[in-house]
Amino acid sequence: MRAHWNSPSAEVPQEAVIDLLLVVSELVTNAIRHGEGLAGFHATVTEEGVRLHVRDNSDVVPADAYGSGEIPPGHPARGYGWPLIIRLSREITIEPSPEGGKTISVLVPLT
Description:
Blueprint: H1 2-5, H2 14-34, E1 38-45, E2 49-56, H3 81-88, E3 90-96, E4 102-109
Helix pairs in contact: 2-3
């Protein structure tokens, strides 16, 4: 990603980088806290943005995985991760991993 962003033709807005870092942080934190541990991470720069693949050790799909992105009422200290991921990402998929657990893939636009 650094090589892509340092190329003369790449103009990535600072806000897009902040969004990307927030989505990475939320996905990895969720894998550690709710997915029985981080089992894999891969990021690929595409023309549309950065595609992230985060694998954990749990087969459980988050209840709000394909929700609206609304902030949940009555959860003052938790429950904001998935709404942020939904709002900042595109093409969210959750698939079982052959090794067990699941892989969550998202595309974070860099525009």
